[in-house]
Amino acid sequence: MQKILLILASTLVGFASYAQREVKLYKGRPPGNLDDTNREVHVKTERGRLDSVTIPSIAVFIPEKLDSSKTSVIICPGGGYRYLSIFDAGYQLARELNKVGIVAIVLKYRTQIEGYYQDFSKVPFNDFDRAIEIIKDSANNWKIDVTKMGVIGFSAGGHLAAFKTVHTTHFTPAFSVLVYPVISFMDELTSTRTVTRKMLIGDHPSESQKKIFSSELHVRPGINPCLLIHAQDDGGVIVQNSLAFYTALTNAKVKAQMLLYQEGGHGFAMHNKKQNDHWLPMAMNWLRFNKFLINN
Q1: Region 88-104: what's the mean pLDDT?
Q2: Strands across the sheet containing 226-231
């Protein structure tokens, strides 16, 4: 009996370390999928990742005590639209945000699998929009004011978040935090080491496709505050992505701040190991400065 209780306790601790609830975005086959199979694979790398995500969902993290500003955030992990680095740049970040009273929702959007989708270029954006619909429907139960919800995106998730920052048809982020984001698909801003553009729109995109998915070209006045975080030596997503977006934001008189590390590379999530720096406290101060956090 004691052994059974220990196993049960261990299981409950493991469950509690993740979200209070997980909600699938669609009933039945997600639109755009060509079959019903769930191909998701958990790959145990140093950071951990999910490959071949075909059934999208959101993981909802609600803090015990809400900040009085009622700020919430939807998190878009990176992975080049090929996989999701959803553990440190997703679930772990959500738990940290809960500590300061922020409701955090991690978006597990679908990733590219050759021959699996009708048109993958629409899929991550449709998943984001569907997540927002579900959040709006559940806002009261989850203690969310959608008008005070921001977005945080990493790498390709930063591309998704930036796109939704400048195109606000379904949702207007109260703020955007973009961490080593892919901003542009233009040739001069696309690293030879990145697969993000290839995964989304293929090896030979047209100039029109490149421009559609280059958020620096669609910045306009009225966008809410943005925070950019990048490393100068990032070889996967060159720092000029953030610089171009920051310049466009400044020209449009959008409130913006940028943290540029001298070193750090790509994919450091919340902790830049090269410079032994955690950027989240700075981001919390930025949220306080802009009145998105009040009591912490």
Answers
A1: 97
A2: 21-24, 57-61, 103-108, 72-76, 149-154, 176-179, 226-231, 256-261
Which letter, b or e, does each residue of 17-30 get, where b requires 16 or more Cβ atoms within 10 Å of its Cβ? eebeeeeebbeeeb
> Contacts for 166-170 with beta carbons within 8 Å, 24 or more apart?
166/215, 166/218, 166/219, 166/220, 166/223, 167/218, 170/129, 170/132, 170/133
pTM above 0.85, yes or no: yes
Q: Which of helix, strand or coil describes residue 211?
A: helix
Count helices and strands in the chain by DSSP H and E runs:
8, 13
pLDDT in tens, 223-281: 999 999 999 999 999 999 999 999 999 999 999 999 999 999 999 999 999 999 999 99
**Distance between terminal CA atoms of the chain?**
44
Alpha carbon distance 93, 270 (integer Å): 7
CB 160 within 8 A of CB 220: no
Tokens 């032994």 -> residue:
276
For 71, counting Cβ atoms within 10 Å of its Cβ (0-12 exposed, 13-18 middle, 19+ buried), the class is: buried
CA–CA separation, 227 and 125 (whole Å): 21
Q: State the sign of the Cα–Cα–Cα–Cα dihedral 272, 275, 278, 282.
A: negative
CA-CA-CA-CA dihedral for 14, 19, 23, 25, to nearest 10: -110
Indicate left, alpha or beta for 155 from its phi (over 0: left) and psi (-120 to 50: alpha): left
3-state SS assignment for residue 265: coil
Task: Assess contact for 55 and 100: CB atoms under 8 A.
Answer: no
Closest listed residue to residue 246, CA positions, set 261, 227, 231, 262: 227
